[in-house]
């Protein structure tokens, strides 16, 4: 059984707002399956004595003081925006969600 | 609009409650009042020019690395402790993935299955003084989103908009989300319990000093989950019905109304043989109804995973205890203490609490007014004016210090109650402190007996018939003369003194033998 089905890829594409043709879905499902298969090998290597981790460094409680620091100017912030208006990022019409 | 009428059908509330048992769940988002954002050093001031409080971290630019705000963490733990929660010994942040331009990273940094605080409760006081315990599921840390302006179509609405303009100043502002367990057993008082819970939570957060908790400005926002299940002898054994989530119910009054509306609407659907869809609903403040948003299916698929850019949090137990030591006196206990100090009855204190005036009265007393006078102003004239303007008392543009000053003017005899109300009107109109308003408007009481006496003489001369009646013993007729003098003085006289002057001048003739 593949690690990821074509339907699951289609579902993910929908969540990511990426339009994919049937051909693309077939190809992507095959490629992702190979990638997930490779990752699954890592899981086999790790025994029960190796806890799952989300961070490579054994650090906890890294915080910063609540002191403002200079950020970007509006011009700098908007410099990479494909479109802007009234000092705001202009984005395409948003489908109603929240 | 057909989509509105379709959902406008509701069952009478009492009838709904006779058939069904309501179950609620409340999710409250609170913006913390930290100086900087949750994961970067950008300032958090409200109302700044668009996109001037942003940096690579909150804009989600490649390579930027978030670091947790120490005060944000402290506030989260203090909130958890104040809600009688356990504090996690170890927990992480998680990415909540979704594609929407209000978060430029395409995910919101939140907490998922490892909240910083969990399993607590909040005792809330209902209007009749009864206490209801609301169980808290969790309180977790996350960040606020940017603000979108929708252009084209109906003003400000997403529907029909051509494009949107986004300001990321708010993106990354620290949020604490506080989630209740299903609230059962409230029965017909469910709407009141919901309102009382949000009110008690707001009071607690204010006392903690962690947020300015302004619902009208969005620093405290409430989502209301509601479901119905059939009434039964053994109510707890009946499984919960399908719930709806009404988003952004942003005033205490609306929380109560939205719960009541959803109960009535669910009941109508269920008694009509229909099914409740698990969906998000929009609250309409103006019409007091909810309308269908989106169905919660795909959109719930947020693909949470642990945030790899932030390290886990493992608060030291001693530090947590230290923070526990910084908790304020619980608001309910504080109210009982103040009630004793002020010598108010249970009902007086409850009215004060229900009108949101406890802090205002406290501050007015601190500024020198007597508790009795302070209560009279806030629950009397100011409540009346606030109701007329459909505002909260705390939104009225007058400070406790100004009320104390106004009261001092009354007590020193410089203003009558009538003049004091006029002075208050001036203060509310932005004309300055009461003393300034008195001067500008010339609201000084005419206490000069000479001037008053002349006005009384003129009134008697102009109303010989009335004068005769008073002389004949009909003392109550004096009202007409007093009214005439007060009118001439434009209210700037002490009516009691005028009455004395009238009666001095018109002694009752000895009745004919």
Automatic annotation (TrEMBL), chain A:
Biased composition, Basic and acidic residues: where in the chain? 87-98
Q: Which SUPFAM superfamilies match?
A: Glu-tRNAGln amidotransferase C subunit
Which keywords does UniProt give here? Answer: ATP-binding, Ligase, Nucleotide-binding, Protein biosynthesis
Say which species the protein is native to. Kineosporia mesophila
- Identify the gene encoding this protein: gatC
Which HAMAP family does the record cross-reference, listed alphabetically?
A: GatC
Positions of region (Disordered):
67-98
Instruction: State the name under which the record lists this protein.
Output: Aspartyl/glutamyl-tRNA(Asn/Gln) amidotransferase subunit C
User: Could you confirm whether the keyword Iron appears in this record?
Assistant: no
Species lineage, top-down?
Answer: Bacteria, Bacillati, Actinomycetota, Actinomycetes, Kineosporiales
Where on the tree of life does the source sit, at the highest rank? Bacteria
State the oligomer form and interacting partners.
Heterotrimer of A, B and C subunits.
Q: What functional role does this protein have?
A: Allows the formation of correctly charged Asn-tRNA(Asn) or Gln-tRNA(Gln) through the transamidation of misacylated Asp-tRNA(Asn) or Glu-tRNA(Gln) in organisms which lack either or both of asparaginyl-tRNA or glutaminyl-tRNA synthetases. The reaction takes place in the presence of glutamine and ATP through an activated phospho-Asp-tRNA(Asn) or phospho-Glu-tRNA(Gln).
From TrEMBL, chain B:
Keywords, ordered alphabetically: ATP-binding, Ligase, Nucleotide-binding, Protein biosynthesis
Q: Which reaction does it catalyse?
A: L-aspartyl-tRNA(Asn) + L-glutamine + ATP + H2O = L-asparaginyl-tRNA(Asn) + L-glutamate + ADP + phosphate + 2 H(+); L-glutamyl-tRNA(Gln) + L-glutamine + ATP + H2O = L-glutaminyl-tRNA(Gln) + L-glutamate + ADP + phosphate + H(+)
**Gene3D superfamilies under this entry?**
1.10.10.410
Q: SMART domains given for it?
A: GatB_Yqey (SM00845)
All copies of domain Asn/Gln amidotransferase, residue ranges = 359-506
Q: What is its EC number?
A: 6.3.5.-
Per the record, the domain of life is: Bacteria
Q: Which Pfam families does UniProt cross-reference here?
A: GatB_N, GatB_Yqey
Q: PROSITE patterns from the xrefs?
A: GATB
Q: Mind telling me which HAMAP family this protein's record contains? A: GatB (MF_00121)
According to the record's subunit comment, the protein's assembly and interactions are: Heterotrimer of A, B and C subunits.
Function of the protein: Allows the formation of correctly charged Asn-tRNA(Asn) or Gln-tRNA(Gln) through the transamidation of misacylated Asp-tRNA(Asn) or Glu-tRNA(Gln) in organisms which lack either or both of asparaginyl-tRNA or glutaminyl-tRNA synthetases. The reaction takes place in the presence of glutamine and ATP through an activated phospho-Asp-tRNA(Asn) or phospho-Glu-tRNA(Gln).
- Provide the family line: Belongs to the GatB/GatE family. GatB subfamily.
* Protein name per Swiss-Prot or TrEMBL: Aspartyl/glutamyl-tRNA(Asn/Gln) amidotransferase subunit B
Originating organism:
Kineosporia mesophila
The gene is: gatB
